[in-house]
Protein backbone atom coordinates (compact mmCIF):
# COMPACT_ATOMS: atom_id res chain seq x y z
CA UNK A 1 0.00 0.00 0.00
CA UNK A 2 2.78 2.45 0.91
CA UNK A 3 4.35 2.03 -2.53
CA UNK A 4 1.13 2.86 -4.39
CA UNK A 5 1.48 6.64 -4.17
CA UNK A 6 4.95 7.06 -5.79
CA UNK A 7 4.15 4.33 -8.34
CA UNK A 8 0.92 6.06 -9.37
CA UNK A 9 2.53 9.47 -9.61
CA UNK A 10 5.22 8.04 -11.87
CA UNK A 11 2.72 6.18 -14.05
CA UNK A 12 0.40 9.19 -14.32
CA UNK A 13 3.36 11.26 -15.49
CA UNK A 14 5.05 8.79 -17.84
CA UNK A 15 2.63 6.00 -18.77
CA UNK A 16 -0.60 7.86 -19.54
CA UNK A 17 -1.48 6.15 -22.85
CA UNK A 18 -0.97 2.69 -21.29
CA UNK A 19 -3.16 3.34 -18.26
CA UNK A 20 -6.54 2.34 -19.83
CA UNK A 21 -5.24 -1.16 -20.56
CA UNK A 22 -3.58 -1.43 -17.13
CA UNK A 23 -6.81 -0.37 -15.41
CA UNK A 24 -8.84 -2.81 -17.51
CA UNK A 25 -6.53 -5.70 -16.57
CA UNK A 26 -6.55 -4.76 -12.87
CA UNK A 27 -10.33 -4.42 -12.42
CA UNK A 28 -10.90 -8.22 -12.13
CA UNK A 29 -8.48 -8.36 -9.17
CA UNK A 30 -10.91 -6.19 -7.18
CA UNK A 31 -13.03 -9.35 -6.93
CA UNK A 32 -10.10 -11.59 -6.02
CA UNK A 33 -10.48 -14.03 -3.13
CA UNK A 34 -7.12 -12.78 -1.82
CA UNK A 35 -7.27 -9.72 0.41
CA UNK A 36 -3.76 -8.68 -0.61
CA UNK A 37 -4.73 -8.37 -4.27
CA UNK A 38 -7.87 -6.36 -3.53
CA UNK A 39 -5.96 -4.11 -1.13
CA UNK A 40 -3.12 -3.42 -3.57
CA UNK A 41 -5.41 -2.71 -6.53
CA UNK A 42 -7.71 -0.49 -4.48
CA UNK A 43 -4.71 1.46 -3.15
CA UNK A 44 -3.39 1.86 -6.70
CA UNK A 45 -6.76 3.09 -8.02
CA UNK A 46 -7.21 5.41 -5.03
CA UNK A 47 -3.91 7.14 -5.73
CA UNK A 48 -4.57 7.25 -9.47
CA UNK A 49 -7.79 9.18 -8.79
CA UNK A 50 -5.58 11.87 -7.26
CA UNK A 51 -4.44 12.73 -10.79
CA UNK A 52 -6.41 14.43 -13.54
CA UNK A 53 -4.99 11.89 -15.99
CA UNK A 54 -7.93 9.53 -15.25
CA UNK A 55 -10.29 12.26 -16.38
CA UNK A 56 -8.23 13.01 -19.50
CA UNK A 57 -8.27 9.31 -20.44
CA UNK A 58 -12.02 8.93 -19.74
CA UNK A 59 -11.33 6.50 -16.88
CA UNK A 60 -12.98 8.46 -14.07
CA UNK A 61 -16.46 6.89 -14.15
CA UNK A 62 -15.06 3.37 -14.45
CA UNK A 63 -12.70 3.82 -11.52
CA UNK A 64 -15.27 5.66 -9.42
CA UNK A 65 -17.73 2.79 -9.92
CA UNK A 66 -14.98 0.35 -8.96
CA UNK A 67 -14.32 2.25 -5.72
CA UNK A 68 -18.02 2.52 -4.92
CA UNK A 69 -18.36 -1.22 -5.46
CA UNK A 70 -15.73 -1.92 -2.78
CA UNK A 71 -17.76 -0.31 0.01
CA UNK A 72 -19.13 -3.65 1.16
CA UNK A 73 -15.81 -5.48 0.83
CA UNK A 74 -15.21 -7.88 3.76
CA UNK A 75 -11.75 -6.37 4.26
CA UNK A 76 -11.80 -3.16 6.32
CA UNK A 77 -8.63 -1.82 4.66
CA UNK A 78 -10.18 -2.16 1.19
CA UNK A 79 -13.27 -0.21 2.33
CA UNK A 80 -11.06 2.50 3.79
CA UNK A 81 -8.90 2.81 0.66
CA UNK A 82 -12.00 2.92 -1.56
CA UNK A 83 -13.26 5.96 0.37
CA UNK A 84 -9.83 7.55 0.08
CA UNK A 85 -10.01 7.11 -3.68
CA UNK A 86 -13.45 8.70 -3.89
CA UNK A 87 -12.23 11.61 -1.78
CA UNK A 88 -9.18 12.01 -4.02
CA UNK A 89 -11.49 12.94 -6.90
CA UNK A 90 -11.65 16.37 -5.23
CA UNK A 91 -7.94 16.77 -6.06
CA UNK A 92 -7.73 14.89 -9.35
CA UNK A 93 -10.99 15.92 -11.03
CA UNK A 94 -12.64 18.64 -8.91
CA UNK A 95 -14.94 19.71 -11.75
CA UNK A 96 -16.49 16.22 -11.75
CA UNK A 97 -17.37 16.24 -8.05
CA UNK A 98 -20.38 18.49 -8.69
CA UNK A 99 -21.73 16.06 -11.29
CA UNK A 100 -21.35 13.01 -9.04
CA UNK A 101 -21.86 14.84 -5.73
CA UNK A 102 -24.90 12.93 -4.46
CA UNK A 103 -23.26 9.57 -5.14
CA UNK A 104 -19.97 10.57 -3.52
CA UNK A 105 -21.69 12.02 -0.44
CA UNK A 106 -23.78 8.86 -0.02
CA UNK A 107 -20.57 6.81 -0.05
CA UNK A 108 -19.07 8.98 2.70
CA UNK A 109 -22.19 8.72 4.87
CA UNK A 110 -22.19 4.94 4.40
CA UNK A 111 -18.54 4.90 5.47
CA UNK A 112 -19.33 6.79 8.66
CA UNK A 113 -22.05 4.24 9.39
CA UNK A 114 -19.72 1.25 8.84
CA UNK A 115 -20.70 -1.34 11.46
CA UNK A 116 -17.62 -3.57 11.12
CA UNK A 117 -14.98 -0.96 11.96
CA UNK A 118 -13.80 -1.48 15.57
CA UNK A 119 -11.10 1.22 15.40
CA UNK A 120 -13.19 3.65 13.30
CA UNK A 121 -10.58 3.79 10.53
CA UNK A 122 -13.24 3.69 7.82
CA UNK A 123 -15.18 6.47 9.56
CA UNK A 124 -11.98 8.52 9.87
CA UNK A 125 -11.30 8.17 6.15
CA UNK A 126 -14.94 9.03 5.36
CA UNK A 127 -14.76 12.24 7.43
CA UNK A 128 -11.42 13.27 5.96
CA UNK A 129 -12.58 12.60 2.38
CA UNK A 130 -15.90 14.34 2.94
CA UNK A 131 -14.10 17.50 4.10
CA UNK A 132 -12.17 17.48 0.80
CA UNK A 133 -15.32 17.01 -1.28
CA UNK A 134 -17.34 19.77 0.40
CA UNK A 135 -15.58 22.54 -1.54
CA UNK A 136 -16.98 21.16 -4.79
CA UNK A 137 -20.45 19.71 -4.12
CA UNK A 138 -23.82 21.34 -4.78
CA UNK A 139 -25.43 22.88 -1.70
CA UNK A 140 -28.65 20.94 -2.28
CA UNK A 141 -26.79 17.60 -2.27
CA UNK A 142 -25.19 18.16 1.13
CA UNK A 143 -28.17 19.89 2.77
CA UNK A 144 -30.31 16.75 2.51
CA UNK A 145 -27.68 14.86 4.56
CA UNK A 146 -26.52 17.70 6.81
CA UNK A 147 -28.37 16.76 9.97
CA UNK A 148 -27.55 13.05 9.72
CA UNK A 149 -23.84 13.78 9.28
CA UNK A 150 -23.74 16.28 12.16
CA UNK A 151 -25.41 13.81 14.53
CA UNK A 152 -23.25 10.91 13.33
CA UNK A 153 -19.90 12.66 13.87
CA UNK A 154 -20.76 14.20 17.25
CA UNK A 155 -19.59 11.19 19.38
CA UNK A 156 -16.14 11.40 17.76
CA UNK A 157 -15.53 14.84 19.34
CA UNK A 158 -14.57 13.02 22.56
CA UNK A 159 -12.84 10.01 21.04
CA UNK A 160 -9.66 8.76 22.70
CA UNK A 161 -8.09 8.83 19.24
CA UNK A 162 -6.90 12.39 18.52
CA UNK A 163 -7.20 11.84 14.75
CA UNK A 164 -10.92 11.18 15.15
CA UNK A 165 -11.37 14.24 17.36
CA UNK A 166 -9.51 16.46 14.92
CA UNK A 167 -11.21 15.16 11.78
CA UNK A 168 -14.77 15.18 13.16
CA UNK A 169 -14.46 18.68 14.65
CA UNK A 170 -12.94 20.08 11.45
CA UNK A 171 -15.71 18.45 9.42
CA UNK A 172 -18.35 19.98 11.72
CA UNK A 173 -16.83 23.40 11.06
CA UNK A 174 -16.98 22.80 7.32
CA UNK A 175 -20.63 21.68 7.53
CA UNK A 176 -21.73 25.02 9.00
CA UNK A 177 -21.24 26.60 5.56
CA UNK A 178 -24.27 24.67 4.33
CA UNK A 179 -26.63 25.40 7.20
CA UNK A 180 -28.43 28.43 5.71
CA UNK A 181 -31.24 26.45 4.12
CA UNK A 182 -32.10 24.64 7.35
CA UNK A 183 -30.75 27.11 9.82
CA UNK A 184 -33.01 26.36 12.79
CA UNK A 185 -32.35 22.62 12.77
CA UNK A 186 -28.60 23.01 12.38
CA UNK A 187 -28.50 25.82 14.91
CA UNK A 188 -29.57 23.22 17.50
CA UNK A 189 -26.57 21.12 16.49
CA UNK A 190 -24.29 24.12 16.97
CA UNK A 191 -25.72 24.77 20.45
CA UNK A 192 -25.32 21.07 21.31
CA UNK A 193 -21.68 21.12 20.19
CA UNK A 194 -20.72 24.52 21.59
CA UNK A 195 -19.70 23.49 25.11
CA UNK A 196 -17.65 20.56 23.80
CA UNK A 197 -15.83 22.75 21.27
CA UNK A 198 -15.06 25.39 23.90
CA UNK A 199 -13.76 22.79 26.37
CA UNK A 200 -11.59 21.10 23.74
CA UNK A 201 -9.73 24.37 23.29
CA UNK A 202 -7.92 22.85 26.31
CA UNK A 203 -7.33 19.56 24.48
CA UNK A 204 -3.84 18.08 25.02
CA UNK A 205 -3.35 17.69 21.25
CA UNK A 206 -2.49 20.90 19.30
CA UNK A 207 -4.14 19.59 16.11
CA UNK A 208 -7.44 19.17 17.98
CA UNK A 209 -7.17 22.69 19.43
CA UNK A 210 -6.56 23.99 15.91
CA UNK A 211 -9.68 22.16 14.65
CA UNK A 212 -11.75 23.61 17.53
CA UNK A 213 -10.60 27.13 16.74
CA UNK A 214 -11.58 26.62 13.10
CA UNK A 215 -14.97 25.10 13.96
CA UNK A 216 -15.84 27.89 16.40
CA UNK A 217 -14.84 30.57 13.88
CA UNK A 218 -17.12 28.87 11.36
CA UNK A 219 -19.98 28.59 13.89
CA UNK A 220 -19.74 32.24 14.94
CA UNK A 221 -21.87 33.79 12.17
CA UNK A 222 -24.71 31.33 12.91
CA UNK A 223 -24.82 32.18 16.62
CA UNK A 224 -26.86 35.35 16.14
CA UNK A 225 -24.55 37.24 18.47
CA UNK A 226 -22.21 39.76 16.90
CA UNK A 227 -20.00 40.06 19.99
CA UNK A 228 -19.48 36.30 20.20
CA UNK A 229 -18.77 36.05 16.46
CA UNK A 230 -16.16 38.82 16.70
CA UNK A 231 -14.55 37.13 19.71
CA UNK A 232 -14.23 33.84 17.85
CA UNK A 233 -12.75 35.54 14.78
CA UNK A 234 -10.29 37.69 16.74
CA UNK A 235 -9.19 35.40 19.57
CA UNK A 236 -9.28 32.03 17.81
CA UNK A 237 -6.91 32.74 14.96
CA UNK A 238 -4.57 29.81 14.41
CA UNK A 239 -1.39 31.73 15.14
CA UNK A 240 -2.73 33.52 18.22
CA UNK A 241 -2.18 32.15 21.73
CA UNK A 242 -5.26 32.09 23.93
CA UNK A 243 -5.69 33.24 27.52
CA UNK A 244 -8.36 30.64 28.19
CA UNK A 245 -9.77 31.94 31.50
CA UNK A 246 -10.23 35.51 30.26
CA UNK A 247 -11.61 34.27 26.93
CA UNK A 248 -14.18 32.03 28.64
CA UNK A 249 -15.25 34.83 30.96
CA UNK A 250 -16.14 36.97 27.93
CA UNK A 251 -17.76 34.04 26.11
CA UNK A 252 -20.01 33.43 29.12
CA UNK A 253 -21.01 37.11 29.22
CA UNK A 254 -22.15 37.00 25.59
CA UNK A 255 -23.83 33.60 25.95
CA UNK A 256 -25.81 34.51 29.06
CA UNK A 257 -26.87 37.87 27.64
CA UNK A 258 -28.04 36.33 24.37
CA UNK A 259 -29.18 32.87 25.55
CA UNK A 260 -29.94 32.91 29.31
CA UNK A 261 -32.21 29.88 28.80
CA UNK A 262 -29.14 27.91 27.72
CA UNK A 263 -27.75 27.65 31.26
CA UNK A 264 -29.36 24.27 32.05
CA UNK A 265 -28.02 22.74 28.84
CA UNK A 266 -24.61 24.28 29.49
CA UNK A 267 -24.50 22.84 33.03
CA UNK A 268 -25.60 19.33 32.02
CA UNK A 269 -23.05 19.15 29.21
CA UNK A 270 -20.24 20.40 31.41
CA UNK A 271 -21.11 17.90 34.13
CA UNK A 272 -20.29 15.12 31.68
CA UNK A 273 -16.69 16.42 31.52
CA UNK A 274 -16.17 16.39 35.30
CA UNK A 275 -14.87 12.82 34.79
CA UNK A 276 -12.92 13.54 31.61
CA UNK A 277 -9.64 11.67 31.21
CA UNK A 278 -7.99 14.95 30.14
CA UNK A 279 -6.91 17.01 33.16
CA UNK A 280 -7.21 20.47 31.57
CA UNK A 281 -10.68 19.73 30.21
CA UNK A 282 -11.73 18.29 33.57
CA UNK A 283 -10.62 21.56 35.19
CA UNK A 284 -12.25 23.76 32.55
CA UNK A 285 -15.74 22.26 32.95
CA UNK A 286 -16.51 23.46 36.54
CA UNK A 287 -14.91 26.83 35.73
CA UNK A 288 -17.26 27.14 32.74
CA UNK A 289 -20.33 26.41 34.89
CA UNK A 290 -19.23 28.76 37.66
CA UNK A 291 -18.60 31.70 35.38
CA UNK A 292 -21.78 31.25 33.35
CA UNK A 293 -23.97 30.90 36.45
CA UNK A 294 -22.43 33.87 38.27
CA UNK A 295 -22.74 36.09 35.20
CA UNK A 296 -26.39 35.11 34.71
CA UNK A 297 -27.15 35.85 38.36
CA UNK A 298 -25.50 39.26 38.03
CA UNK A 299 -27.46 40.02 34.87
CA UNK A 300 -30.72 39.00 36.54
CA UNK A 301 -29.88 41.18 39.53
CA UNK A 302 -29.23 44.13 37.24
CA UNK A 303 -32.42 43.42 35.31
CA UNK A 304 -30.62 42.77 32.00
CA UNK A 305 -32.32 39.39 31.44
UniProtKB/TrEMBL annotation:
User: SUPFAM superfamilies attached here?
Assistant: ARM repeat (SSF48371)
Please state the gene responsible for encoding this protein.
Mroh1_0
Q: Which Gene3D superfamilies does UniProt cross-reference here?
A: Leucine-rich Repeat Variant
User: Which residue ranges traverse the bilayer?
Assistant: none
Task: List, alphabetically, the GO terms of the cellular component aspect.
Answer: cytoplasm
The Maestro/Maestro-like HEAT-repeats domain covers 65-290
| Protein name as annotated | MROH1 protein
Q: Which InterPro entries match?
A: ARM-like, ARM-type_fold, HEAT_Maestro, Maestro_heat-like_prot
Amino acid sequence: VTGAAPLCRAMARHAGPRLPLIVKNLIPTLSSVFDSQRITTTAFFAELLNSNVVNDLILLETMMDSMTGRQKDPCMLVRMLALRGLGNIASGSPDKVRKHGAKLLASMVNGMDDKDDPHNLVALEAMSSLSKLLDHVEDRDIQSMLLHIAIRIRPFFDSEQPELRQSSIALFGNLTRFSDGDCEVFFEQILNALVTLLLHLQDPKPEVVKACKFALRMCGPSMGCEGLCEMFLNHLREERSLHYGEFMNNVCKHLMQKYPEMLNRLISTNLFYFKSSWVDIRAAAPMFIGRAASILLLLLHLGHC
